[in-house]
Write a structure and sequence with these properties.
single chain; about 240 residues; alpha/beta; eight-stranded mixed beta sheet; three-stranded mixed beta sheet; about 30% strand; globular
Length: about 240
């Protein structure tokens, strides 16, 4: 994605953690907005960027939500599991500043690519960014969908909102075994995975909302395997 516009792309990394994705795209990007609510983790990301001479990354100690304000943030020993919902190994609670995606990008150059790994806050972020996400400049969203946290109704509404904003699901990253992931095109999900995982989840895990009528128009292939990562592309 970034390679097509090497040196011209603007990338928004929401939940940048230690900066892995920001550093990966830095050589191909003109500018990166790296956003992370955990100040300790963000400090390490800043130091790593400095050591690697990544001068095109702007760091922000913020969280995104549906409205601006303050919020309680649960810090986990596993840094990428920290979030607004308590997870395993929580070691402390901190108060973080929250803004909306619309407000954050109001006076900034718009990104072409947005990555979002926010441990269940994706619903609130999308709802707080509907205005800017409708802009044609934003072409791709890389989204980790935490459906066990969101639940049926919010998961459905989130996907419908993204569709209404012009985004369709292009790929699903499916974790077959621990630390072994595959980037699957929609065709594969259509022909193989939907039937298998729909049946498995219904029978074994009772995830009753895995049904075709809840999926986006034209993407009746979307299935939830663990916590899937979705790559969404704005319609032409």
């Amino acid at each position: 994605m970034a390679g097509r516009q090497a040196g011209k792309c603007i990338f928004l990394d929401i939940g940048c953690n230690y900066g892995f994705y920001s550093f990966l795209l830095a050589p191909y990007s003109r500018k990166i907005y790296a956003v992370e609510p955990n100040p300790d983790v963000l400090d390490l990301a800043k130091k790593a960027a400095e050591l690697n001479n990544f001068t095109n990354i702007e760091f922000y100690n913020l969280a995104f939500g549906q409205k601006a304000g303050k919020a309680k943030f649960y810090v986990s020993t596993i840094s990428n599991w920290s979030g607004f919902t308590p997870s395993v190994n929580v070691i402390k609670e901190i108060e973080v500043e929250v803004t909306t995606l619309d407000k954050f990008l109001e006076n900034k150059e718009l990104p072409q690519i947005i990555k979002m790994d926010v441990e269940g806050a994706e619903y609130e972020i999308i709802k707080g960014g509907e205005e800017v996400l409708s802009e044609p400049e934003i072409k791709y969203i890389f989204l980790e969908l935490h459906w066990p946290i969101l639940g049926e109704e919010k998961t459905k509404e989130l996907l419908e909102t993204l569709n209404s904003l012009g985004f369709s699901i292009k790929y699903v990253i499916y974790e077959h075994k621990q630390w072994c992931s595959f980037l699957l095109p929609i065709r594969f999900i259509d022909k193989v995975a939907f039937t298998y995982f729909y049946t498995f989840c219904k029978e074994k895990l009772n995830y009753s909302f895995l049904s075709p009528e809840l999926l986006l128009p034209g993407t009746c292939n979307l299935v939830f395997i663990n916590v899937p990562e979705l790559i969404l592309v704005k319609h032409a």
